[in-house]
Every structure is written in C-alpha cells, then in structure tokens.
Amino acid sequence: MPFNLAELTEYLRIATEALGRYRLRTALSVTGVVLGVAAVIAMMSVSEGAAREALAQVDALGLDNLVAQSTGGLNARGTMKRSLAAADASRAVSLVPTATLGSPVVSRYLKLGHAPQSLTGQVLGVTPAFQGILRLAIARGRFISASDEASVARVTTIGPGLARELFGFRDPIGETITIAADHYRVVGVLREQGMDPKAGSSMGWHQINRAAFVPLPTLTGHTFEVSPNQPVDEIWIQVDDGERSEELGEVFRRLLRQTRDADEFTLVVPRELLAQRYRTQRTFSVVVGSVAALALLIGGIGIMNIMLTSVVERTREIGVRRTAGARRRDVTMQFLVETLLMTVGGGLVGIAVGAVVSAGIAVYAGWSTHVSTTAVALGFFVSVSVGILFGLYPAMKAARLEPVDAMRHE
Known about the structure:
This protein is α+β, with helices and mostly antiparallel strands. It folds into 2 domains: about 5-55 and about 275-410, no CATH class; about 85-260, no CATH class. The chain has 13 helices and 12 strands. It has helices at about 5-20, 25-60, 85-95, 130-135, 145-150, 160-165, 215-220, 245-255, 270-315, 315-325, 330-365, 375-400, 405-410; strands spanning about 65-70, 85, 100-115, 115-125, 140, 155-160, 175-180, 180-190, 210-215, 230, 235-240, 265-270. It has a 6-stranded mixed barrel. A hairpin with a 2-residue loop joins strand 7 and strand 8. Helix 9 (about 270-315) runs parallel beside helix 12 (about 375-400) and helix 11 (about 330-365) runs antiparallel to helix 12 (about 375-400). The longest helix is centred in the last third of the chain and has 44 residues, at about 270-315.
C-alpha cells in the first residue's frame, strides 16, 4: 500500500524529534557520511579535471599529428649525434601515407623587447605549414608566409600573451620588436589558444600564447635551398587518417631510422599519449575511489551501530506505539526515515564540503579540478544508498519487536 503525504509528514516529524534528542551523537554519526561523500566528490573532481586537462593538452597537439623530437647529445663514440634535419619534414610528407602537412621546428629562448618592456621568451622558427598543423587561429594580421620564408624576412607573428606583455592594449601590427639583437616587424597576433589563458601554453611543451613565430631560415640564418639538412629540434607532420595515427607513427619512425639511430630522436603520437594518460587516470581513480568507499563504509557502519543502539534504548517507546495501533510498517519507516535523514543530510553537506575541497586543491596544489553534475548525482545516490543499506536492518529489527515484550522492557 503506497504512503500518503500525511504519513510521510508524520514519519519525518517523529524522525526529526528523535534525532534532536541526541544532537551530539547524531552529528558524530553524520560526520562519517560527510567525509565519505566529500572524498567521493573531491576524488571525482580531481579525476575529471585531470582527464579534461589531458584531453585539452593532447587535443591541442592534434590527434592527427605526429611529432619527432631530437634528443641531441653525444653518442657512445663520444661524437655529436645527428639531429633531425629540416629536409625530414618534406620527406615525411612524401613517404608517410595520408600525410598532408609537414614543418620543421627550431625552438630558442631569447631576449624579446619593445621599449620599455623586455623579457625572455620562446621563439619558434617554423614554416607556414605549422599554422595548419596546429590549426592556429589569427586574431589580427596574418601568420608568416612562404614569401617571408623565401626572402628570409625578419617578421614575426606573436602570441596574445606576449602581445599584452610587450604592447599592453595597443595594436602591435606593424610595430617592431627586438629578438636577441635583431629587429622584427610584427605581422600578426594569434587568437588565444587553449581554455585557460593564464596557463600560457596550449600545446604540450611550447608556450604558444607567449611565443614569437618567425620564419625558420631567418632564425637559423640558413635557407632550405642552401642548407636543406640543417639541424632542427622537431619535425611535425599531419595525417588525414587520425584513427591510424599509431600505425602511421611507426612508418614515420622507420623512415627516420633510415638515416639516424633510434636514440637520436623520440616520437610523440598524441593519440597514443592520450590513451596512456587515460590508463594512468583510471588507476588513480581506482586507488582514490577505494579510499572514498572505505570512508563511506566506516560511516555506514557507524550509523548502523547508532541505530541498533537506538532500537534498544527506545524499545518501550516502540511498544507504546505498537499498542496504540502502529503497524510494523510504521515502525520500520520511522527508523528508516531517521537513517535516511542522517545520510541524505550528510550527503548534501558532503557534496558542499567536497566542492570546497576541490576548489582548495585547485588553488593550493595547482591541480586542475572540475565538479561535474555526474559527481554530484553520484554523491547524492551514494548517501541515499548508504542510508537504505545500513538503516534497513535496524528498522526491521525494531518492527519485529512484539508489543507485549516491548512494554515490559526497562
């Protein structure tokens, strides 16, 4: 038989009055649920934040891109290893199936300035294809062009963060900045890259928002025609079939190994990197989730213990209610509602505490966190489940008491 509103209101009134008699005991019992649910929320927020950050970083690298990085250094014979060469980019585009774009990259940290501002920043020597590989959007002006590359022009496209640091709110297009001891004309400003402008980086290991892009021959002082095998730090290629990026990455690796040893470069496959990060994240979630589940279990056992004690203490009260006409169902609901009030109330407080803890982790530990609706729904569901699971047995035990035996209890 379904419960009507009057009955539910009466159950809530009796449960609230009963819990109010022992405020300290009730508060201590609820604390276990609060800590358990808060742990669930905080754990899921850290996990979700890390997953989002990993996805954003890897997505910025491009799930359809492949990156070879030069390791440099000395080999076993004590001589300098052959680094990657600029010509490797065009070779890769020609020989790697479905490859459409390729660009060598040279990275330098140099002194940048526009009077009176001066700072040390990243300068990336690239080809015009690099814009398409990373899908860099332009806010004002243009990206470096093929004619800039051919004429070894001293022009630069700068990131929005660098533009703000050097020019404030002024338009930098047409202005001149110094890179090392040379003067470069600003021809473009990138649109903000990534979800967090304060991060200053939207592409793995390069600070795109604070970088200056220049034609690679201008930075190295060697044109591709004169020095096609000039050393570079990285080779980026883009493939049409991103789903096959791991397979195509192996083709790219074999292509590079035809001219150099395996330890002279490392190959980064963003899609593979994303899968590895997700595997690590799942392991982290299992470990922290186990701790949160243990906290909830302890909280639930504490509440069951309190409710069993309450049944013993209120045996005479149960007898009076049964003698006055209360049904077993009414007694069961009375104690079950008491348990649910504690666990649901503790769950709601735990959700709030978990959100605050999540924000604290983001501020003080510098981790990326995100409290999702899924986490909130799970926290509420868990608190209700704990109430039903650990409150049902004490409630049924109370309902099984015979009225005559309960009235005789002292």
